[in-house]
């Protein structure tokens, strides 16, 4: 079969909504870094898209392309790779491509059906379902006793749900042979801390110890009372304290933060790295530190505008955080937390420990960026001992 004919066939099936899943693998040039691409259908804003998930050695990237416009991207990728496996409704297809782009196309009939609901990650969005009353959400005023999400609480409900989804995705990184130690720093009213306990201990029946820590004594006392009233046992505790002074642990497996203000996020990340936590999930907010440090005449065109400067500072702060985590031996990604339409605080820092040493290129890249901005990041200072050999 000719290459163009193959593209027509694949693109036609995708446009017709028949894609179930596909993988493109076998890069012709390893040096490009892109190892494989997974494809799946997603529905965005009511329109069918193909999601391309690009797997590089250390990062994943995603792009959603309308299903009837996927041909160009497919063509670009298939010229660079040797094989593709695809499941469409009714058939599985195995494709091999020679150097000269001669195509071997092998199709097997199946009775697989396309997913009938393609809303983006639908299953996971509903780890906590609307209509099901969860005692902690009722008690925290997010749900009514019959499980309806209260007016004005939908954003909170979405945040908790989405965070739980990230936690679910991270379970494979956590130990299975002992109590999983989890800290929620800056837990506040502790919606997330309760959700963690509910999902991991009650639903997944895992052996966990979850701690929420916050500066506010009264709020923490309320949380303790709620936990006691709900009969939650020793696996959930609430502590009053400052993240900056919290050094009591030796073994922590997962550190989470949700909107821990400004450098409180960095204090939490610093501790997580020092403890060697396997999983870090952190949704920052109010990134002020860099805004006050920014000194980059080269970026004057942007930074002369207060609005742009503020947004730039926030994005640069999270980029610096992710890069420092990479330098400290983590696979760090910045992912969309909640759709922009619901909150501007929409970046999740997700980091899994690898223990990998950074390359010289990466170290230089970080230093150049930091110096370009005139930045003196709190997190770098927090990690100074750990990064001494790396950044000197
Ligand atoms: C915006 S609230 C978020 C609360 C909660 N995580 C949530 O999402 O509902 C930020 C919380 O971080 C706490 N916080 C800020 N700095 C802190 C620090 N250094 N140590 C402990 N808690 C801190 C505040 O007291 C506040 O409760």
TrEMBL record:
Domain (Methyltransferase) ranges: 155-291
GO biological process: methylation
Keyword presence, NADP: no
Superkingdom of the organism of origin: Bacteria
GO molecular function: methyltransferase activity
SUPFAM superfamilies, alphabetized: S-adenosyl-L-methionine-dependent methyltransferases
Keywords from the UniProt entry: Methyltransferase, Transferase
PANTHER family: METHYLTRANSFERASE DOMAIN-CONTAINING PROTEIN, PTHR13369
Protein name in UniProt: SAM-dependent methyltransferase
């Amino acid at each position: 079969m000719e290459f163009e004919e193959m593209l027509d066939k694949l693109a036609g099936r995708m446009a017709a909504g028949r894609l179930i899943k596909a993988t493109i693998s076998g890069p012709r040039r390893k040096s490009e870094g892109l190892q494989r691409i997974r494809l799946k259908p997603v529905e965005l804003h009511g329109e069918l898209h193909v999601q391309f998930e690009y797997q590089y050695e250390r990062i994943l990237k995603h792009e959603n392309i309308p299903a009837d416009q996927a041909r160009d991207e497919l063509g670009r990728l298939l010229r660079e790779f040797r094989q593709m496996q695809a499941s469409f409704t009714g058939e599985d297809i195995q494709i091999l491509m020679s150097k000269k782009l001669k195509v071997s196309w092998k199709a097997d009939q199946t009775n697989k059906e396309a997913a009938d609901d393609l809303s983006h990650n639908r299953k996971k969005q509903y780890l906590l379902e609307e209509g099901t009353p969860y005692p902690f959400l009722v008690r925290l005023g997010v749900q009514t006793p019959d499980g309806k999400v209260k007016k004005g609480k939908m954003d909170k409900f979405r945040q908790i749900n989405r965070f739980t989804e990230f936690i679910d995705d991270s379970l494979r990184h956590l130990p299975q042979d002992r109590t999983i130690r989890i800290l929620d720093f800056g837990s506040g009213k502790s919606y997330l801390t309760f959700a963690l306990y509910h999902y991991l201990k009650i639903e997944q029946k895992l052996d966990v110890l979850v701690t929420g820590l916050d500066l506010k004594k009264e709020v923490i006392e309320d949380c303790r009372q709620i936990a006691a009233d709900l009969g939650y046992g020793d696996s959930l505790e609430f502590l009053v304290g400052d993240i900056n002074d919290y050094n009591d642990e030796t073994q922590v497996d997962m550190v989470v933060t949700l909107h821990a203000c400004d450098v409180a996020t960095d204090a939490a990340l610093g501790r997580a790295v020092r403890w060697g936590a396997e999983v870090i999930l952190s949704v920052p907010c109010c990134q002020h530190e860099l805004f006050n440090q920014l000194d980059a005449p080269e970026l004057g065109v942007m930074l002369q505008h207060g609005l742009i400067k503020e947004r730039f500072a926030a994005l640069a702060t999270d980029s610096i955080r992710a890069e420092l985590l990479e330098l400290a031996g983590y696979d760090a990604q910045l992912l969309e937390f909640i759709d922009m339409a619901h909150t501007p605080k929409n970046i999740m820092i997700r980091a899994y420990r690898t223990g990998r040493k950074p390359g010289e290129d990466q170290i230089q890249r970080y230093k150049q960026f930091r110096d370009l901005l005139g930045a003196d990041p709190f997190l770098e200072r927090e990690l100074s001992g750990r990064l001494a050999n790396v950044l000197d």
